[in-house]
Specification:
heterodimer; A: alpha+beta; 1 helix; B: mainly alpha; Glutaredoxin; two-stranded antiparallel ribbon
Amino acid sequence: MKRILICVFALLVFGMAHAEQKRADVPIGDSPSLGPADAPVTIIEFIDFQ
Amino acid sequence: MAAGPTVKQILQTYPGKIRLVIKNYPYKYRDFARVAAEASLAAKDQGKYWEMHDILIARSPKLDRVSLIAYAGELGLDVNKFSESIDSGKHAKEIDGDVQLAESIDLFNTPTFYINGRQVVGERPFDYFKKIIDEELHQPGR
């Protein structure tokens, strides 16, 4: 029983870590930006005007 | 490609909640992609980035040098300074930096978005973005 619990816990932690990995850390730098710097949502758009 | 109207709609729907950041990923096999990116940053130097950004999206694919200079004129920019900037590739380093960043995160398509780091590839309907933004806004601590 204890072993099963440890397994479940390990899977859970792994799953959470995996979900977090889906977030890319894209530096903003001096790129053009609009809206408050402390906005709850930051959208970074990679654009090609053509 | 750029997703003008959808992005506009997002900004209007969530006033004060969104910070929009633009990075350039001019596809190397499109003739005017690179010079259009230069044009946007040349306009930024004169305080009219977003005005130029909107014109470029609206008039794309008419983005040859002569057209770009005409747009600068329409926006009341100093056309000589603007032309000098795009002709000399004044912002080449900045654009190269964005391209390198894109490739380092396995991005090869435009538009690609990162919403609090969550990747969205390609043009998507407004509701697709809305769902992700609502999830982000409802995260604890936001």
